[in-house]
Amino acid sequence: MSSTQGPHSLAFRVMRLCRPSLLVEPPLLVHPSDLLVGEDLLDHPLAASRLPPLIASHLSDASDPTYRSRFLLRDPADAMGLSGLLLLPQAFGAIYLGETFCSYISINNSSTFEVRDVTIKAEIQTEKQRLLLLDTSKSPVETIRAGGRYDFIVEHDVKELGAHTLVCTALYSDGDGERKYLPQFFKFVVANPLSVRTKVRVVKETTFLEACIENHTKSNLYMDQVEFEPAQYWGATILKADERQSDIYSAAKEIFKPPILIRSGGGIQNYLYQLKSSSQSNGQMKVEGNNILGKLQITWRTNLGEPGRLQTQQILGTAITRKEIDLRIVETPININLGRSFSVHFNLMNLTDRELGPFEVWLSQNDSLEDRAVMVNGLQKMALPKVEAFGLSDFALNLIATKLGVQRIKGITVFDLTEAKSYDLLPDWEIFVDVK
Prior knowledge:
The chain has about 425 residues and is mostly beta strands. The chain has helices at about 30-35, 45-55, 245-255, 280, and strands spanning about 10-15, 20-25, 80-85, 95, 100-110, 115-125, 130-135, 140-145, 150-155, 160-175, 180-190, 195-205, 205-215, 220-230, 235-240, 260, 270-275, 290-300, 305-310, 315, 325-330, 335, 340-350, 360-365, 375, 380-385, 390-400, 405-410, 410-415, 420-425, 430-435. It is elongated and about 110 Å long.
């Protein structure tokens, strides 16, 4: 087998297959008087007064044959310069991540004799992997006649950035029966068509995700779809500007969604999503440390509808800390009087999928007796039974205020007797103590 001795009978020719572009020929605009009489003749007063009406009578509309107006277009369509022809790609051009690389490959026999038993392979080689696109080892091409060719098309979904190499090889028998090996390499670079910048903001129980998409290509991008796929236990709603439109137009817009244009060379488009955790409504438990919000699915079209598609990595939010139990205040009396007992009602919720408890609840007294503004009236510790998985237990604490004015209740502690673990679940809250 030879790969270097003597000339090869075969050679690969590669053309990238993509949507053609419009062939634009800038028009040369002249005034009809320039074609008939020339420019200097209009300087003569008699010719300047009688020649324009004469020319105008043979034209559809009259125009002023001055230097300022002779280059004005009669028909706006003439400015486009479209010839009605489509231009096929003359080179590989720019190839972007998310596109489908499609190539038309022709192996030509330029010799004067036919070649036999041609085994053809086409591969895409990247920095990380080597992908086989075509292999005729099991069914070689029997013959390629002199001056003939064998054509095929390969496709590859571009999922990596950086240098790529299309490797085309042929193993064949020439006219003398010698087996020869022909390798050819076609290199191209894959660039990033767009960048996605995200910001996550949390307002109370709602998370807002802002996504900014910037176009890095030399052509306009028409965004067909920019959807956020939320992770488990999350729900997403896209927020849009309030556009006052007719009902008919709004209904038609929902059926035929127009693409959003992001202009070439740095154009941007912003999207805003409202995220809510579904675990709060269905009783599911949040997984500790699971701060994955979801990912964006982006599809677009470029020249004459050339498609592209990208998926972002998982977007992270604020880290979630697992809570096994939660304590909430249900009701506090409106009127609290000095020296009189009052009850505060609580809910103790089990946020796990197993039974917890039993519990003890007390008001920790870290301050000295003189500094205590609110104390427990009665037993200092309250016993609570076990709470089933995702269940809750209602209870009330009897308290008594010892000082007037705005006072702060703090130090409500829940203690799990089984696991010997204490929870400080409630932030400090304030009450107003009156005389009566």
